[in-house]
Design a protein that fits this description.
Leucine-rich Repeat Variant, ARM-like, mainly alpha, globular, ARM-type_fold
């Protein structure tokens, strides 16, 4: 109908165009499948033509834009190129000149979401080219001229424009023309009453601390007072971003800045968050505490992080050759005998190790050397109680699985990497336990999907020897767990490991019943996983 409207007189087409937009908005709102269909049809192009060419700017109303906004909210990363290639953002920028403040806010939101997703999709492939493309299209300057510095523009639109520009230049130099105004607006945004604006402002400011030119602008006008305000929030997402911004100021700031932060941060607040059950808050608070109490060790690690930020992933083995892993291994060895104030140093070491390991098999090979990074972190995990194991400890091991070669994977199996990860499954903290069991399942299920029908799981003997199976079985028998999904995830993990193999009689019923219970009770898209694992078990033909 929108296509039909292109060929009709305006007075005839407009009521139909308006009705179609409103109807499609109802279909797309909160509907991921509807959005997926829209992206692969010509609906997006018709919306684009309507708002980019057909309607005069001052005739565009909020409902004309909501369909595109819903699409930008919900489309998946893998279909981002469909959106980028037709350049929706180019069609939207003219709407920023509208006199309707709500229209400008929605248009700014569409551009913001497009930039967020674009940065994410291009982060491993020359992200500066994405920034240059957006800048050359005039989008940045339009956001700046028609929204950010234009009198009468709403605070919401200004905040979204500032966040968009800031996000675009997170990993490249922001033009001097924009920097001060953009940073000033985000400093206002971090105190916004709108949660998304507050979270995004804090997140982008945190990233911009990597740029020394930006730090001075960020810290001007009693900025630490603003951070302390955010650190007293009762919202977990805001707290996470506030703590991470504080961390990054420690990492990238001068010694004078580090001293200022240490002196002004409220110790009672940081101590409170070091007891949080929310893992991202807990881990960030531990690192901030170590910056205050173990600054020398943290500063030495920060020097490595700053060098990592300057190098492409395929050149980071140079840092390993210069002693980066030796330094991090020393941190793990020291962590075995140190007290709680050192735990943030270990977590910071894990964060840096993950960055070094990403997309570099030469770095991974160095990590697998005897008494190297892998052996050091496993020794550390064996030395601490299960409840002291943190998500970042396990993520460091998982990072090895993600980027390793086939030959390196064999070395990891010989070193019992999954068994080491399963040490975490004895924790009594269910939030952490849910994170750990899902990571372990993701890997096991991924390996299972490679197999043909009737082919047994080749790692079963290894998982028996390294304790993986026994720890998964222990989870099934725990009576203290409230989150029933944890037992289900353990069950599908075991079912995958016993593909085309007889399940031991002592666990056969509980494994199958857990999967069937989840299958009957769910109303989401996980049917395929449960059915596939039941099929794996049935391939043995001896389960009934």
């Amino acid at each position: 109908m929108l296509k039909w409207g292109r060929e009709q007189q305006q007075n005839l087409a407009r009521p139909v165009q308006d009705a179609v937009c409103q109807y499609i908005n109802l279909l797309l709102e909160g509907n991921k499948e509807g959005v997926k269909f829209a992206v692969h049809s010509n609906i997006v192009e018709e919306f684009q033509a309507l708002i980019g060419e057909i309607l005069p700017v001052d005739d565009i109303l909020p409902f004309h834009l909501l369909g595109i906004d819903y699409i930008c909210q919900l489309y998946q990363d893998q279909i981002y190129t469909n959106i980028f290639n037709i350049r929706i953002d180019q069609s939207v920028i003219r709407i920023l000149k509208s006199n309707n403040s709500e229209v400008v806010e929605i248009a700014a939101d569409i551009i913001l979401r497009s930039i967020f997703r674009g940065i994410k999709c291009f982060e491993n492939f020359k992200p500066h080219l994405f920034a240059e493309a957006i800048e050359n299209d005039g989008i940045v300057n339009t956001l700046y001229e028609d929204v950010l510095i234009k009198e009468g523009t709403s605070k919401k639109a200004k905040n979204k424009a500032a966040i968009s520009i800031g996000r675009l230049y997170e990993r490249t130099q922001m033009p001097e023309k924009y920097a001060n105004i953009v940073i000033l607006q985000m400093k206002k945004g971090m105190k916004s009453e709108i949660k998304d604006i507050q979270v995004d402002s804090l997140s982008v400011l945190s990233s911009l601390t990597q740029n020394q030119d930006c730090i001075a602008a960020i810290l001007s006008n009693n900025f630490l007072v603003g951070i302390i305000f955010c650190l007293r929030s009762d919202d977990n997402e805001i707290l996470v971003q506030s703590l991470q911004l504080t961390e990054n100021l420690f990492v990238n700031g001068s010694e004078d800045i580090k001293e200022q932060i240490s002196n002004k941060l409220p110790a009672d607040v940081i101590n409170q968050y070091m007891k949080s059950n929310y893992q991202e808050i807990y881990q960030s608070a531990q690192k901030v505490n170590s910056w205050i109490k173990r600054r020398n060790e943290m500063t030495q690690l920060a020097a490595i992080k700053q060098q990592i930020q300057l190098k492409a992933s395929d050149n980071r083995d140079q840092l390993v050759e210069q002693g980066a892993f030796k330094q991090i291994c020393g941190v793990f060895r020291q962590g075995i005998k140190e007290e709680d104030e050192y735990s943030g140093v270990v977590l910071f070491g894990c964060e840096i190790a993950q960055q070094l390991l990403k997309n570099n098999k030469r770095v991974i090979q160095a990590a697998l050397e005897d008494d190297g990074l892998f052996d050091s972190i496993v020794a550390f995990l064996h030395s601490i109680p299960p409840d002291k194991i943190m998500p970042d400890h396990i993520q460091t091991l998982y990072q090895l699985l993600l980027y390793t070669s086939e030959e390196q994977m064999k070395q990891l199996y010989n070193k019992q990497i999954i068994g080491a990860m399963c040490l975490s499954l004895s924790t009594t903290n269910e939030q952490k336990l849910d994170i750990y069991i899902n990571k372990i399942f993701q890997y096991i299920y991924y390996e299972g999907e490679k197999l043909k029908e009737g082919q047994s799981f080749p790692l079963k003997a290894i998982f028996e020897a390294d304790g993986t199976i026994s720890r998964l079985v222990q989870l099934l028998h725990r009576i203290d767990l409230i989150n029933i999904k944890i037992k289900h995830t353990a069950a599908v993990s075991i079912g995958t490991i016993f593909k085309a193999t007889i399940l031991p009689k002592e666990i056969k019923s509980i494994v199958i019943n857990q999967i069937k219970l989840h299958l009957y009770n769910q109303d989401d898209s996980h049917y395929s996983t449960d059915l596939k694992v039941l099929k794996y078990i049935a391939e043995c033909k001896c389960v009934l």
